Amino acid sequence: MDPVLIVILVIIAVVVIGGILIYNGLIQRRLRIDEAFAQIEVQLKRRWDLIPNLVNAVKGYMGFEQQVLTDVTQARANAVTAGAQGPAEQAAAENMLTGTLRSLFAVVENYPELRANQNVLELQEQLTTTENQIGFARQHYNAVVLDYNTSIATVPSVLIAGPLGFRPREFFDAEPEASQVPNVDLSNLSAPPTSPPPPA
User: Fold this and answer.
1) In this predicted model, what pLDDT tens digit does every residue of 76-133 receive, in sequence order?
2) Shortest CA distance to 138 belongs to which of 103, 176, 100?
């Protein structure tokens, strides 16, 4: 066989095998993104499920603070529906929800009955723990997105990524102020501020 033909065939084989390896690597990275986002969704759903319980636990005491509860409930509804719009929209809605929860816990501090309520204490602790888990899941998701986005933008992967439809993925960003639910110490019962009495 002609040596030149052999060289050509070897080069073609190397290119094909290299292309297959790069393609498989991109697929694996994309699947890791989907898996990482699924972990975020698990924690978000847990938070969504806790919020109605928290609202029900405090609303009987907060007759003069209904706007805060309305804001939390609306922000939760917006967060639930934002998932279909993509990670960036989901992150924005979750940041808004975290902000309303921060406002709720700040108001709860003014109600000594709530600060002594074991159910409220447990829900606040569960929400704080869940928020931490969301933070860890977000960090992992953003790390795998960065790895994937870097891969499809660099040689040699970029030669395959574009023609085969690999597109950059969005990060799940959190505003610095909304990165966690405030850890309000509801068990501190000393010198409670004056508060309106609960409704009869």
Assistant:
1) 999 999 977 889 899 999 999 999 999 998 888 888 888 788 898 899 899 999 999 9
2) 176
CATH number for the domain that contains residue 157: 1.20.1440.20
The pLDDT mean for the chain works out to 85
Distance CA 140, CA 145 (A): 9
How many domains is the chain partitioned into structurally?
1
What is the domain extent for residue 136?
3-178
The C-alpha atoms of residue 158 and residue 156 are separated, in whole angstroms, by: 6
Distance CA 3, CA 58 (A): 83
Domain assignment present for residue 142? The answer is yes
Is residue 169, in this structure, part of any structural domain at all? yes
Q: Residue 195 domain-assigned? A: no
Nearest to 88 by CA among 32, 165, 16, 141: 141
Q: Is 200 a member of any domain?
A: no
116-120, 141-145, 184-188 — which is least confidently predicted? 184-188
The pTM of this model reads 0.80
Do the beta carbons of residue 96 and residue 75 sit within 8 Å? yes
